[in-house]
Design a protein that fits this description.
The chain is an alpha+beta fold. Among the domains are: about 140 residues, Arc Repressor Mutant, subunit A (Orthogonal Bundle); about 120 residues, no CATH class; about 80 residues. Helices cover about 55% and strands about 10% of the residues. The strands form 3 sheets. Strands 7, 8, 9, 10, 11 and 12 form a 6-stranded mixed sheet that branches. Strands 1-2-3-4 form a 4-stranded antiparallel sheet. Helix 21 packs antiparallel against helix 22. It is globular, with a radius of gyration of 26 Å.
Length: about 600
Amino acid sequence: MLYFRDFEFNPSTSTLYRHGDVVALTETQLNLLILLLNEPEKIWSKEAILQVLWQDKDVTEQVVFQTISQLRAVLGSDAIQTFPKRGYKWQLSLTQARAQLSVNKTPIQHSGSRFWVVSALLFIFTCGIAYLGAQQSSLQKATSKYALALSPITATPHSEVESQIVQQLNEALSTQLDVELSPLKKVNTLTSRQSHTLKPHEGTRMLTVHGEITKLSMAGGVSYLLDYTLSGESRQWQSFVIADDVALLANRVHGQIERLSHSRYFELVSENQVTAELTLMNAASSDNLSIAYVLISQLIERLEYDRASTLLHQYQNQLRDKEQFHQALFNLLKGQLLYGQGQNALAVQSLNLADKQFEKLKLAGLQSETKQLLVQSLSLTEEYRILKMYLIDAAQLAKLAGRTQLELASYYQLSKLAARHQQSTDKYRYLALVSQVVTQFGLDESHLMLRDYHQAIFAKVASEKLTHLQRAILRPVSEENRWVYYAVADLASNLLITEKNWQGLVAFTAALNDDVLRAKLIAKKQVAMGSAEAWHYVERAFEVARQESNYWVSVPMALLLLKLESEQVSDHLHIYQSHIEQFASPSFKARHSQYL
């Protein structure tokens, strides 16, 4: 076996494992992996890779770039190094005796155009057979059955969808999914279209379907759009399906749910693994714009702009003139990408176009999201009055669409904007509107945690800040506001450490209802006090967080361990570095590259 990171590769069967599970790779990805592992010190040019993997097929160099990107998504972005104008080289350290992989390279003199003899063809054939075996084994793992629950699909507010259409869709989905309608409580629509981690279901593995249908009047006639969510064990899928009639819409939703339920998407925790799984799904269904949309959104959020740009170009090439909805989504994605790349002026152009397209389609929720992104892109150039107008429009559109979470997000953004422009009255006015919305719609107090956090940031006196933070940690914790809970704990612990209020820090830590977070604050206290045993507490926090797959804590604790000068820590530096490389965001790694 050949080992790198937490992967194992069996040369005799050409199978890649991770934590004992087979990693599903396409045939091309597997062949490329074998090629790189066989000569890890060699820099492979694009031409050489094309010659070996694609032989005489009529393909461009773009397929090399795409396959490299897909393999990086599985193994980690640093697994394969790019040498500009030269090629690609394996980058990860390999352990154990490396058996020669099943490829025999023999240069031949034939116009210099071929690098391999017939044994290379045999090698690719062998890899294909091994790949099929790996795929079958992986599929057996992935096809574990989920129980499906279907919450009644509803009409988007003010969407003019007839009641009989809604009824027909529910009946069609119930029949195709072979489930009865369940009167389950609808999950609040999140403010982002990315995948979101949820608390795992207890007991039965469950996938819950819920969504809203909208009627679209487009140039080609009437179409129906389903904005649906599929909630699983550890995350949820949010996407769109569009069709000209209800039967086709239900059929497309059924096909997508079938595909998702046979993947490992809902079982994964690491965002690296999720990106890899989405990449494989997209490769297997290259004509499915819904999967491509989710993958591109994921890549933009992870700051993998090169891959996102390539896939976005492919997305655009698949659009047809009549697909006005997907054209609007394309412009929204393009605006997000350009904003992430710092090209704000170009981002504004794309987002303005998306804004007009969503307005024409009467998709108030997506128009609200677009206006919020516009404010971020314009924040450095436009005056407060203009930005405020955009966000007020976003809040009103969210209210019209029945997207309460989006409305709250607009008010929070208005409050932050007012604070940045030193508009003291406005920053508190919009926080008051948050309270009104929570009360009006009977939302639980978890939605007030971010309000408390903002009030703590706005407060000028440390004691007043702590009062707001102590109120915040008593709010209910949900998966949507858990990041706020962790931010509250960090801000409060930093304030108490600055004041050397150790007793107050102990009391605050004891009030937390999260064991992992408590371990982190105890570790921070020991480090701040200069304890000789501080490394022990930090390591404990790291291990507890890692066991729980809590990367919000494990990653900063791994970094803290790298910063500590200790003989005990030095023995495990590679563990902490590898953990950060695998689970930290690209921006986090960029900020702390000196320790990696």
